[in-house]
Amino acid sequence: RHGPDAVDLDKYSAHSYHSVVGAPWICNLYEVPGTEVLGTPKYTERHEADDLLPKVMENIQGHSATIYEQVATANIPDSARDDPSRPSLAGAISAPAISTLRLEVAEPSVNEFLDWYQAEEFPRLGSRAGFLRARLARVNGFHPWHPSDEPEWVAIAEWAAMQDAVGSDGPENVIGRHDDRFGDAVSRLAYTVGTHQFTLLNPSLWGP
């Protein structure tokens, strides 16, 4: 029910992944045009009228709704964002498996962190079998009813298969590589690998 509601409320897509490495167990990803989608009368009315929502919220743990904006990508064509009102499906999330790394980055190290990802980490991911795309995103705004305390940054990599996502790059390697490179400038690192459960798209919002 929630997935169809999400795409009906002017969200581009709703995806669900279940973690096989790390936590939380469920990772739902929604692609949205911007934070303004969460403040429309239509969204507010649907949220307030959802009689199942209180019961759902009472029976889940560790819930967090974090709004991120993409700031860097790998293997996503620039043309996918030529029309901000109708981005191309070439830039959409569409993978059997994803890995995510959530972390804080000290402000003085942000530019160095971005440069490192684009010059070293994205190419390193791209050299691995089954790599499809990657995104680096930063918190941009807060959910109107469920503000998040998740780390400010997230790196999301898409993989052709679960065995590719897991590979030889376990949590210790991923977190250790960031710790070795940035030391105390990074913190709260949390790594997950998830397998795809479902995807729903809003066809009226995507370009070719």
Distance between the termini: 27 Å
Order of helices and strands: HEEHHEEHEEHHE
Total number of helical segments? 6
Poorly predicted runs are none
Task: Write a brief caption for the model.
This protein has 208 residues and is an alpha+beta fold. It is 27% helix and 33% strand. Strand 1 (13-21) and strand 2 (26-31) form a beta hairpin.
Keywords:
single chain; 208 residues; globular
Describe this structure in words.
The chain has 208 residues and is of the alpha+beta class. It has 6 helices and 7 strands; from the N terminus they run αββααββαββααβ. The chain has helices at residues 2-8, 41-49, 53-58, 110-126, 162-166, 171-182, and strands spanning 13-21, 26-31, 66-74, 97-105, 131-142, 153-159, 186-201. A 7-stranded antiparallel β-sheet has the order 2-1-7-4-6-5-3. A hairpin with a 4-residue loop joins strand 1 and strand 2. It is globular. The model has no long low-confidence stretch (mean pLDDT 90).
Question: Could you outline the blueprint of secondary structure elements for this entry?
Answer:
Elements: H1 2-8, E1 13-21, E2 26-31, H2 41-49, H3 53-58, E3 66-74, E4 97-105, H4 110-126, E5 131-142, E6 153-159, H5 162-166, H6 171-182, E7 186-201
